[in-house]
Amino acid sequence: MNANFESELMQLLDEHEDEMIKIRRYLHEHPEPSFHEKHTAEFIKNYYRDLDCKVHDCGDGYGIVVDINADKPGKKLAWRADFDALQIQEDNDLPFKSQNPGVMHACGHDGHTAYLLVLGKCLIQLKDKINGSIRLIHQPAEEVAPGGALSMIKDGALDDVDDICGIHVMSTMPTGTVQLHAGPTQTGRANFDLTFTGKGGHASMPQLSNDAIVAGSYFVTQLQTIVSRRLNPFEVGSITIGSFDGVGSYNAIKGQVKLKGDVRVMSKETRKVIKENIEQIVKGTDVTFGVKSKLDYDDNYPVLINNRDLTKEVETWIEESDIPEVRAVKDSGVVNASEDFAYFAQKKPACFFYVGCQPKDGGIYPHHSPKFMMNEDCLIICAKSAASVICHYFA
Q: For residues 80 and 165, what is the distance between their CA atoms, to the nearest angstrom?
């Protein structure tokens, strides 16, 4: 490895840590939800406008690809960061609190974008020392299926790429830790919309009606038997009903209810078992209660599988770099959440790893909480961890 290259890059990142924080706070204050990230994309492109790199739009949405040393021979490493926010009303008292009602960076994507922008600028400054090329993938719409990754892949985001890496900050992991896992690492996901239609009526005459709320409630309770009685106990699977829309009045029987569900799995076999059993329970509910159902089932994000060889190298490289801000590099184990980075990992050897961002006061609010908080010390750790990988990769 070129020790001088790594030393210079780390020094540049230290000099620009305040800029990372400033960018993160600006993005946090101006969040945009999935598939609507117009101004965020403009901000990203403007950042690279006067830098010596090639920038182009990619995909059906607001995806951006940045090539450093675009035509230089040698290996090509891609590095991905997402930049969409969530449709959540922020419940934090911050000077840079979200200014967009009902939208919040509640998952850390503002931090992902901030560290990668500054890292990109520093890499461009030292690009002559890189024995190959780097592609930065700024991806929109990670949070909502079908996600932004698929259309970027179709539009050539991974053309000529040898390997791809990415980082996610984690509020559930202590700040100062870098965590990663080889092999199947994050769950695959499916979502479904379900409507039960019965016959509404007066609450005092239930015999003349067909209560959709009762049918929907029965479905929800029966759903719990899939994981407990249909899956191998050593398999990973979860089913959640996140929405049950049965709002009505005191004295009226509902004729229709609408439900939204979420499924998480770690294998194709489990995905198949859960889907088939949900379909069976829906049909059984129709027969039992005389209702009519409409099920829209969307199998979307696959299981995220980290390449074992690359992940082991990434772990070794970060440890060898002895980054002052990193107190520990450890195995994260399997992470429950799903990620459309999994689509990139299906196409190229990949390593997706985690940087702890647990707040200093120890108050842990999970991702997607309206009170999600990030310890901004994680930004320099993200940048330096990525820098370590990049310097070793091109050694």
A: 6
Global pTM value = 0.94
Phi and psi (nearest 5°) for 42?
-65, -40
**How far apart are alpha carbons 345 and 306 in whole angstroms?**
7
Q: Has 142 been annotated as catalytic? A: yes
CA distance 118 to 386: 12
50 is catalytic: no
Contact present, 311 and 180 (Cβ < 8 Å)? yes
> Which one of the listed residues 82, 84, 339, 340 is annotated catalytic?
84
User: Do residues 119 and 14 lie in contact, with contact meaning Cβ atoms separated by under 8 Å?
Assistant: no
Is pLDDT of 361 > 90? Answer: no
Place of tokens 């499916």: 190
Angle in degrees, CA 236, 339, 375, rounded to 5:
105
Asked if 101 and 157 count as a contact pair (C-beta separation under 8 A), the reply is no
Average pLDDT over residues 311-340: 97
Catalytically annotated residue among 142, 211, 339, 376: 142
Structure tokens at 59: 């995909």
What CA–CA distance (Å, rounded) separates 182 from 126? 31
Q: List C-alpha distances in Å: 227 to 194, 232, 296, 326.
A: 19, 8, 20, 38
Q: Is the pLDDT of residue 299 over 90?
A: yes
Q: Which amino acid is at 147?
A: G
Of the pLDDT bands very low, low, confident and very high (cuts 50, 70, 90), residue 362 is confident
Contact call for residues 355 and 167 (beta carbons, < 8 A): yes
Strands (E), the chain: 54-58, 63-68, 75-82, 132-139, 163-170, 177-180, 183-186, 188-197, 201-202, 237-245, 252-253, 256-265, 292-299, 304-306, 328-331, 350-356
Q: 133 in the Ramachandran plot: left (φ > 0), alpha (ψ -120 to 50) or beta?
A: beta
